[in-house]
Specification:
The complex is a heterodimer. Chain A is an alpha/beta fold. Chain A has 11 helices and 12 strands. Chain A has 2 domains: about 150 residues, Thiamin diphosphate (ThDP)-binding fold, Pyr/PP domains (Rossmann fold, 3-Layer(aba) Sandwich), CATH 3.40.50.970; about 130 residues, Rossmann fold, CATH 3.40.50. In chain A, the strands form 2 sheets. A 7-stranded mixed beta sheet of chain A has the order 2-1-3-4-6-5-10, with helices on both faces. Chain B has a single domain, classed as Rossmann fold (3-Layer(aba) Sandwich). The chains are: A alpha/beta, B alpha/beta.
Chain lengths: ~300, ~270
């Protein structure tokens, strides 16, 4: 995914000289190609994220197309007010890339982990929220974000979980994408970002009757599609590497409750910070997002459906 | 368009009384600064607040917005009804600067935002190779905010000599004297140490303001500019001067009349 990110950034910048990439001193090696190919469109704004977003706002007001890169613990969390007031309020076309979302920085602890970013950005008017699962979704989300010409937060989580989409054909990220076909009127698994791979693996292993959907765009959400899935599913499981408060699971539950009540299980982190240091897999286990714990929770949930 | 300080202050009083609003003192401390900026320095081609070649003025201390509204009335960008209906339901002008009003560049009031946006505008002008200038007016209390200093470092590093910060040093913030809350020391020295060319002046002396701005722009260097304006909170109405209750106090009929009279009777 990181190679795809580098490539799409270079392509956008070469196509449009108004594209300016700003980083808060993050992205070691990620921007080597960009700096070589488009040096005048690259700004390392230093370790000063609040100022970086303000500067991006000023640049956007003068007709530039800023892309602001940082770790998702900082972009958007540290600069949420700047995004709200200096960018979203005036519908400025700025793409915010929050990298390393979830438990990517498992060994570094809470300061670098990000389990609240979807919830915090979802509630800001005029701000869209993208959460691609693989390099194809990432590339097409970035291209769409550029075309949309509005304020967008793009979340990148664990980036080495392999391709979800086999073909490199055009996808329509505004729709949820069916990545595994099951049986009508049975179970639907909805997942976003890194957890799409998990949802597919669990479905293939234990629930061949389940549809699995990837949700690359969380806001604006495709209401019609979700309502239809709710209507046609006996039960829904939503997977995300994010807090169970305010993320995709909450969103699906909100729509379901209003339009087509369906039993929903949210596979997400509980309301707690990481306690221990360890690998990515260790942290998933600590937060109940490892395959075994998820399997047990789904089994228990479906017994009561 | 005279931008006469007495008239501007009376307009502030008119709208503060009409809307029963606060933040009078912090509007009065910047009256002469705004008067000179709008009269002699800010360039709006065809008097269009949205002209793409305009200079940028950002009132980062959005609490002083009534002073800016008063100037915008003189420019013909606001009409009399905007003032007589201030704060009425469904009206446009808010109690803090809001970018939905043409002529107001950014929504401020959450302090410490405007400088960075202004730095971005100044950088945009540099990249586009235009001669547009960007002014950001901040309060002295506002420079408690960290992003002010992030933006100052950035502006100096990128040699944005088309950028000017103006500090309204009235010595007060919401809850009291700046020296009692967060000592600011010598503001000019601070900006100089960050790589700015800085001048301190009497922020109510119109010719000093005018000359200092001209002098800063005429300097042949690559440094961003800082104008430190020593001002008096509540300036122009004797019972409001250096009396911080006028950050939060509303006018009644009696104090409104007394304030108007005080402006008429003041020497300048």
């Amino acid at each position: 995914m990181r190679a795809a990110l580098s490539k799409v950034l270079v392509n956008l910048a070469k196509k449009d000289s108004n594209v300016i990439l700003l980083t808060g001193d993050h992205g070691y090696s990620l921007f080597d190609d960009f700096r070589r190919e488009c040096p005048s469109q690259y700004i390392n704004a230093g370790i000063a994220e609040q100022n970086m977003v303000g500067v991006a706002s000023g640049l956007a007001r003068s007709g530039f197309r800023p892309i602001v890169y940082g770790l998702s613990a900082f972009i958007p969390i540290r600069v949420l007010e700047q995004i709200k007031l200096d960018v979203a309020h005036d519908c400025l076309p700025i793409i915010f890339i929050g990298d390393g979302a979830g438990f990517v920085y498992s060994h570094l602890g809470t300061s670098h982990q990000s389990l609240e970013d979807i919830a915090c950005t979802r509630v800001i008017p005029n701000l869209s929220v993208y959460s691609p699962a693989d390099r194809l979704e990432l590339t097409q989300c970035m291209e769409l974000a550029y075309r949309e010409n509005s304020a967008i937060y793009l979340r990148i989580g664990k980036s080495d979980r392999g391709d979800i989409h086999k073909s490199l054909s055009i996808i329509e990220p505004k729709k949820m994408l069916k990545v595994k076909k099951g049986v009508v009127n049975k179970y639907s698994f909805l997942a976003t970002g890194s957890m799409v791979r998990t949802a597919i693996d669990i479905a293939v292993e234990s629930y061949p009757e389940a549809d699995v959907w990837s949700v690359p765009i969380i806001k604006p959400i495709n209401y019609i599609q979700i309502e239809k899935i709710c209507r046609n599913s006996k039960a829904i499981v939503v997977f995300e590497e994010h807090s169970k408060y305010g993320g995709l699971g909450s969103l699906v539950a909100e729509i379901s409750a209003e339009h087509s009540p369906t039993k929903i299980l949210r596979i997400a982190t509980n309301d707690c910070f990481s306690q221990k240091c360890g690998t990515y897999e260790y942290l998933l286990k600590e937060h109940g997002l490892d395959i075994e714990t998820i399997q047990a929770n789904i089994r228990s949930f479906l017994r009561n459906v | 368009m005279e931008f006469d300080p007495k008239t501007l202050r009376k307009t502030v009083l008119e709208m503060a009384y009409a809307g029963s609003t606060v933040h009078i003192g912090c509007a009065f401390s910047i009256i002469e600064l705004l008067s000179i900026l709008y009269k002699n320095h800010l360039r709006y081609p065809q008097n269009n607040p949205l002209d793409k070649n305009r200079d940028y003025f950002i009132l980062s201390k959005g609490h002083g917005v009534m002073a800016q509204y008063s100037c915008m009335r003189e420019l013909g960008w606001l009409c009399d009804d905007d003032f007589s209906n201030y704060f009425s339901d469904g009206s446009d002008l808010k109690g803090l600067a809001d970018s939905r009003i043409p002529g107001i560049e950014v929504t401020s009031g959450s302090l410490g935002h405007g400088l960075s946006v202004g730095v971005g505008l100044a950088m945009g002008a540099k990249l586009r190779n235009t001669d547009q200038k960007t002014y950001v007016l901040v309060g002295d209390g506002e420079i408690n905010e960290g992003p002010i200093w992030e933006g100052a470092l950035f502006a100096a590093h990128h040699k944005l000599n088309n950028f000017m910060i103006i500090v309204d040093e009235n010595g007060y913030q919401a809850m009291g004297r700046t020296k009692d809350i967060i000592e600011l020391g010598l503001i000019q020295s601070k900006f100089e140490s960050f790589g700015f060319e800085a001048i301190t002046i009497d922020g109510h002396n119109e010719s000093d303001i005018d000359n200092a701005i001209t002098q800063l722009w005429e300097s042949d260097n690559k440094m961003p500019k800082a104008l430190i304006a020593k001002t008096v909170k509540g300036k122009g109405v004797h019972f409001m001067e250096n009396n911080n209750i006028w950050h939060y106090t509303r006018l009644n009929e009696k104090t409104y009349r007394q304030a108007l009279l005080s402006i008429d009777e003041s020497k300048e």
